[in-house]
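Contributing new records

If you add data, match the layout below exactly. Sequence lines come first and carry their own label; structure lines follow with theirs. Keep one chain per record. Anything else will be rejected by the validation script.
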Amino acid sequence: MTKRPGRPRWQLLADDLRQRITSGDYSPGDQLPAKTSLAEQWEVSVNTVERALTELRDEGLVETFHGLGSFVRSQPEPEAVEGELDEIRERLARLETQMEEVYSNLSLHHPSASSDTSIQEAG
């Protein structure tokens, strides 16, 4: 393992595994090496390996099954993600309309979409 100053070893391990996943060395569905194997290979503790795997799980790259190990997750197709976002936007618009009606029925002023408290659309 090449040490780089300022980077914890779990981050270096996570970076290496992430790079191997994104480059296709590990494909969706592939099982990653066991924690003990990674610990030996990287000359780190199993806790360090667990921290790296937690990072990759949080990013949605890996999923772990108790007693089975960690596996590369299949990534959703961009079209599927965009379709889900469209559905969420439609539902949000319907909820906003319903909330405007509730505020109106209660003779309250509904916060406008241009207020500072509104949710800004990402990307």
